[in-house]
């Protein structure tokens, strides 16, 4: 326990964070930690507990925080979970951690780790609401662990108000114990003209570009976008679809759909690319499409708006909350609706400018400083809750 004059000792469990593998949750978590470090609250002393590869992937965070690494690569989940129950519990106790933030969605099982008061980040409830997208092993694990973890945590953090409401309603967590800590964004510095020209040439972009940055997970629903694009591209030979992000479980289906469309020459699959390239693609895009059927937040939509790119997104989960009235919303899976919505942007420069201006204004409401402040608030709220559950 800390004295009234010493900072509270908070640990962050990052053993789940395999750099380059866990997708948007890595970007969200690391940017949040950077935002908190920039504010340097004097009442909180934060220590990171991470995999060995974390130091190479995020040296700035290792420089900003005391960081304890274990020798695991994180590729074997059973090994990682065992380390959370044993190694992490010992390390946290040795450093007198008074609050442990489990940023990967569950509070690990185990008596020793369970004795340390917890904050939990739940990125979304897709494992409970769309279980068909997960293996039977993962369904059983998360179906058990998510509700149990939410009950054990003093405070649950989520990236959006709709996700917070879902956690409270579905998992029975009192709403005042669930706090929204949103993604943030800053208006990007425009890419140099030379880089824009290089990226345009490297990816062989046409005059108009539809961009979708997403790993091919089933819920990302690339198939609806490919079907809509196939109909749009027939009469628009200078239109290019750019799909960034690494391969996921739906990779084979997406590749087959592109081949079947007969318009594969107008589709670019980039794989995982550097941020500088992705930012340039945002600037070169005519419209960003987010056809996902489930999002705890929807970072690509926010990044696009910050770059002044019109957004067409699915009218589901957190995406309407992120876009508000600054984008076009379409029912998920509605190919006709997607064709009409994308065409309304591609064929109307005035509409493009209108959505660009609205998007920038909307994105200005999501700053990383605001998010870092919310994270610190979550820690303080959890620290103020007594062992009996009362504040």
Task: Tell me briefly what this model is.
With 391 residues, the protein is an alpha/beta fold. The protein has helices spanning 24-39, 54-57, 59-64, 77-94, 111-114, 126-129, 136-152, 161-171, 193-202, 222-233, 251-261, 275-284, 299-306, 319-323, 335-346, 349-363, 368-383, and strands at residues 8-14, 44-50, 67-69, 99-102, 118-121, 155-158, 178-180, 208-213, 239-244, 267-271, 287-290, 311-314, 328-330.
Q: Which fold name fills CATH's third level, the topology of the largest domain?
A: Rossmann fold
What share of residues is helical?
Answer: 40-55%
- Order of strands, main sheet, comes to 3-2-1-4-5-6-7
- Unreliable spans: none
> From N to C, what is the helix and strand string?
EHEHHEHEHEHHEHEHEHEHEHEHEHEHHH
User: What is the name of the CATH architecture of the largest domain?
Assistant: 3-Layer(aba) Sandwich
From the alpha carbons, calculate the radius of gyration and give it in angstroms. Answer: 22 Å
Question: CATH H-level name of the largest domain... which superfamily?
Answer: Glycogen Phosphorylase B
> Which structural class is indicated by helix and strand composition?
alpha/beta
The amount of beta strand, in percent, is 15-25%
How many individual domains? 2
User: What is the number of helical segments per DSSP (H or I, 4+ residues)?
Assistant: 17
Distance between the termini: 16 Å
Based on the model shown, name its key terms:
391 residues; alpha/beta; Rossmann fold; 2 domains; 7-stranded parallel sheet; 6-stranded parallel sheet; 17 helices; 46% helix; 15% strand; globular
């Amino acid at each position: 326990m800390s004295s009234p004059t010493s900072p509270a000792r908070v640990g962050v469990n990052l053993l789940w964070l395999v750099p380059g593998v866990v997708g948007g949750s890595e970007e969200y978590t690391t940017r949040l930690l950077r935002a908190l470090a920039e504010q340097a609250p004097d009442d909180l002393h934060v220590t990171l507990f991470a995999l060995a590869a974390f130091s190479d992937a995020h040296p700035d965070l290792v420089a900003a925080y005391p960081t304890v690494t274990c020798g695991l690569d994180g590729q074997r989940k059973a090994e990682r979970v065992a380390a959370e129950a044993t190694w992490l519990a010992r390390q946290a106790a040795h450093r007198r951690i008074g609050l442990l933030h489990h940023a990967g969605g569950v509070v690990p099982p185990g008596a020793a780790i369970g004795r340390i008061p917890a904050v939990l980040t739940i990125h979304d409830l897709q494992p409970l609401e769309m279980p068909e997208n997960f293996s039977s092993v993962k369904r059983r694990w998360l179906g058990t662990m998510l509700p149990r973890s939410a009950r054990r945590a003093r405070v649950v953090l989520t990236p959006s108000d709709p996700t917070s409401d879902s956690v409270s309603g579905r998992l029975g967590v009192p709403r005042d114990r669930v706090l929204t800590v949103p993604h943030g964004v800053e208006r990007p510095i425009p890419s140099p003209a030379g880089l824009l020209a290089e990226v345009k040439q490297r990816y062989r972009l046409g005059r108009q570009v539809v961009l979708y940055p997403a790993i091919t997970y089933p819920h990302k629903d690339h198939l609806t976008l490919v079907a809509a694009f196939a109909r749009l591209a027939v009469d628009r030979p200078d239109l290019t679809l750019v799909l960034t992000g690494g391969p996921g479980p739906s990779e084979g289906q997406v590749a087959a759909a592109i081949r079947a469309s007969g318009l594969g020459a107008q589709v670019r699959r980039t794989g995982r690319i550097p941020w500088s390239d992705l930012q340039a693609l945002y600037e070169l895009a005519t419209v960003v499409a987010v056809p996902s059927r489930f999002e705890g937040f929807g970072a690509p939509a926010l990044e696009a708006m910050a770059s002044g790119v019109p957004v067409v997104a699915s009218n589901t989960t957190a995406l309407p909350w992120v876009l508000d009235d600054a984008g076009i919303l379409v029912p998920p899976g509605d190919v006709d609706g997607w064709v009409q919505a994308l065409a309304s942007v591609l064929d109307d420069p005035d509409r493009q400018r209108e959505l660009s201006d609205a998007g920038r204004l909307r994105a200005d409401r999501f700053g990383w400083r605001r998010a870092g402040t919310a994270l610190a608030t979550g820690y303080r709220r959890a620290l103020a809750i007594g062992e009996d559950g009362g504040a």
